[in-house]
Amino acid sequence: MKSRTWHELFDNEEIDRRLPRADGIAVVTSQTWSDVIEKSHSPRHLFIGGQIWLGEVTKVALVIFIMKDCSSCQNNVKTFQDVKSAVTKIDGGATYIVNCTSDPKICKENAVTGFPTLSAFRGIGWLEGSHCLSPETSMSTRYIRIDYHGVLLVKNIMDWFSPASGSAVKNLKHEDTSAIRDSVYIVGTLLPRKSHYIPLDLRRKPNYLYPYECFRLACEHLFGPIGCYAQYSKEVPEREFENQDKDMVITKVMLYRKDGLKSTIIQLGKLLHSTIEDESQHQLHAFHHPHRYKIDKGQHCEDDHGRCTDLIVSFTRDHGRLPVTEITMATFHAKTSSIITNEFPVLIAMGHPNNLTETSSFFKMLTNVAYATYNAVQVTSLNVDQYEYWAGQFVPKDYGVQAARKEYPSLYVYPRFVMVNWCNHRQAAFYPSLNIPRSPRKDYNFTQKKLLRFIHNYLEDSKVMMVETEHY
Known about the structure:
Elements: H1 6-10, H2 14-18, E1 21-22, E2 25-27, H3 33-38, E3 60-66, H4 71-75, H5 77-88, E4 93-99, H6 104-109, E5 117-123, H7 135-138, E6 143-147, H8 154-164, E7 170-173, E8 184-192, H9 200-203, H10 212-221, E9 227-232, E10 248-257, E11 262-267, H11 272-278, H12 305-320, E12 324-326, H13 329-332, E13 346-351, H14 361-372, E14 378-383, H15 388-391, H16 399-403, E15 416-420, E16 427-431, H17 448-460, E17 467-468
Parallel strand pairs: 2-4, 3-4, 7-9, 8-9, 12-14, 13-14
Antiparallel strand pairs: 1-2, 3-5, 5-6, 8-10, 10-11, 13-15, 15-16, 16-17
């Protein structure tokens, strides 16, 4: 007997079946947007086969924004249909079209200006009315959005969508964290809710302990730039976890950074205020603004699950930005969860892997600059070998035509820098200057003094330095 897919088991919301179709793809309007995109086709019960917890499979909607007279939209109909077929094979995946000609409201609210635009929306409506949400959070984010910026080929789109539709939490079970390669990540420690290793007075309080699904929500808000893991407690015998269907709670959440800094965010039985104060011992405040968290002096995480979830998210975002943040295309284009924000301009150091190793002279120079400008500029690194096409978009408009006439196009020689605004994907300032010819046969002399001067000049008057670019 053929096993049924996730969609056949759980994708039974009637509203999807009633949506109109365009070229075989469901069409979402402003009237149906909330029910379709913000809500999640979460499982109807707590477990799937005893392995997946509530909300473990999130509905991730691939939304294709089009316009009536958009020739590229019309020319790529077959691509969109093939993408829809591929997305259907992913647990929780669904594809929709929004017509910005007939329904401009959605496009305006989502700041869609180019067509076609492809965006992934991770719905978190499965927690509607949950104690995991504080009053502030329940009124704000209903989904996590990640935009696609690449060529309209099925393989490229699916290479982007597949990780964008993955689980927000990776469950390590009994494995240790030595294999984790994330620059910044958090780990939640799991215990069965009725474990005898939890104090009896806490076990007897109904719904008191901080549940796994609340940690899951925090990880959704951090999805993309922050790794998120759950791990069975090593302080109790392994037999405590033999029954996979046991309801799990979080007893501790730790933040780790690749530069060796780590901090406890919450811990069962400890006051939140004292936990936050402990971070001073780790010098986590050295390059951060003072923090103001909404917690009371005598408050435990278990006293208010919504506030506790907010604290995990806020603390991680506050301390998740390394002096030099390694970025990916998904990280850069995450609209709602990225640690890269529009608060400061973004300096992108584009280089080959040998430029970006921690022992290279270039990276050491870059790190010194990052420390010196931490509260004015977000310094990032981009591996051009891994993201060759994307790196090639950080060039003046129509540069490709000009570059084809030259033996060594200067802007395809690395390392080099661009300064951009996170919310503007069509302008950049360049260093070295555009009028400086470069060849791979000759190294450019990058110095801390010169780079700091470039940053200073940009901060003084960015408008005179900005150049129209390809859409990156």
